[in-house]
Write a structure and sequence with these properties.
- The chain is mainly beta.
- Helices cover about 5% and strands about 35% of the residues.
- It has two helices and 22 strands.
- It has helices spanning about 5-15, 15-20, and strands at about 25, 30-35, 40, 50-55, 65-70, 75, 80-85, 85-90, 95-100, 100-105, 110, 115-120, 125, 130, 150-155, 160, 165, 170, 175-180, 185, 195-200, 200-205.
- Strands 1-4-7-10-13-16-19-21-22 form a nine-stranded mixed beta sheet. Strands 2-5-8-11-14-17-20 form a seven-stranded parallel beta sheet, covered by helices on one side. It has a six-stranded parallel beta sheet with strand order 3-6-9-12-15-18, with no helix packed on it.
- Strand 21 (about 195-200) and strand 22 form a beta hairpin.
């Protein structure tokens, strides 16, 4: 109930009336810092198709979601679920695209000042951070500065394990698995169905992927 009024406000603030009346975006314990910029849903809408801050993992606090949009563009291409204890920080020049069936289980952090694209069926495990900026440029001894930001593009059907850090200029092909605690920066010129992991992340194995329709482990009785 405490989330009902913010949910109604959020939908009617950002969406055209014909979409807003269906309440396609549900907020759970929201902390709405700034609500500038735009939020767009592509295609048809259904009630509750986008869930932001829903309690999914009991090992993390049920703090809902923090939303801070300084003027950027957020696009949802279909269903989306971002779990508890998460935060979205969108800069005034940023463009963030969530593909259809995006899911982050808990403690997902996104900081975008430029451009982040998640293609369809991307899944994030616990406690992951995605950033397309360093927030600071560095001075070069020879003169000039580093750029300090770069687009992030995540291929479809990609799964990120616990605690992954995705930095600027990261590009990952389709159907990949990213191992827990990996640090990603740069373009990964690897085949589809690859496992990458490490700090910095490198190719570890090919011919492997996560089938979200058949990924349950059956544990033996002791």
């Amino acid at each position: 109930l405490r989330s009902l009024l913010p949910t109604i406000y959020f939908n009617f603030h950002y969406l055209p009336f014909r979409q807003a009346v269906k309440l396609p975006i549900f907020l759970y314990k929201p902390d709405l810092k700034l609500m500038k910029g735009t939020v767009t849903i592509l295609g048809g809408v259904k009630t509750g198709m986008i869930e932001l801050g829903k309690n999914q993992v009991c090992l993390y606090p049920y703090n809902g979601i923090m939303f801070n949009n300084e003027g950027g563009e957020v696009i949802f291409s279909g269903k989306c679920s971002i779990g508890n204890n998460s935060a979205l920080a969108i800069g005034k020049n940023a463009r963030v695209v969530f593909g259809n069936d995006f899911k982050a289980s808990t403690t997902f952090r996104l900081a975008s000042q430029h451009q982040v694209t998640f293609n369809d069926n991307v899944l994030f495990g616990w406690d992951c951070l995605v950033m397309d900026t360093d927030f600071h440029k560095l001075s070069k001894v020879s003169g000039g500065y580093t750029k300090g930001f770069g687009a992030v593009n995540i291929g479809e059907n990609t799964w990120f394990g616990n605690g992954v850090l995705v930095l600027k200029n990261t590009t990952i092909p389709n159907n990949c698995v990213v191992g827990a605690k990996s640090v990603l920066c740069g373009k990964f010129d690897v085949p589809n169905f690859s496992l990458i992991s490490g700090n910095p992340a490198v190719l570890r194995k090919t011919g492997i992927w996560l089938n979200r329709n058949d990924d349950k482990i059956i544990y033996p009785s002791l």
